[in-house]
Amino acid sequence: MQSTLKLTCAAFGLLLTGACATTPPPQAELTKAAGQVTAAEALDAERVPQARLHLELAREQIARAEQLIEDGDNDEARRAITRASADAELARALAVEDTTRREAEEAQTRLDQLRKEAM
Question: Which CATH number characterizes residue 47's domain?
Answer without folding.
Answer: 1.20.1270
